[in-house]
């Protein structure tokens, strides 16, 4: 799986392993993360959303 590769390019991920939302597919989370990275969402919002 490419988690480490792509999260290395997301500065607000803080090196943490992903917490997948219940009922959310792996690919869906990947694209959500890419959208958040492009939108430069603050890390607090991102972590709140996925935990």
What does this structure look like?
By secondary structure, this protein is mostly helical. The chain has a domain at 25-51. The chain is 53% helix and 0% strand. It is built from 3 helices and no strands.
How are the elements arranged and paired?
Blueprint lengths: L2 H5 L18 H14 L3 H8 L1
Describe this structure in a few short sentences.
The chain is mainly alpha-helical and 51 residues long. The protein has helices spanning 3-7, 26-39, 43-50.
Mean pLDDT: 53
> Looking at the structure, what is the overall shape?
globular
Sketch the major β-sheet: none
Task: Report the end-to-end length measured between terminal Cα atoms.
Answer: 20 Å
Features:
53% helix
């Amino acid at each position: 799986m490419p988690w480490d590769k792509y999260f290395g390019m997301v500065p607000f991920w803080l090196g943490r392993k992903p917490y997948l939302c219940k009922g959310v597919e792996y690919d869906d989370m990947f694209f959500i993360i890419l959208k958040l990275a492009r939108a430069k969402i603050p890390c607090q919002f991102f972590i709140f959303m996925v935990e």
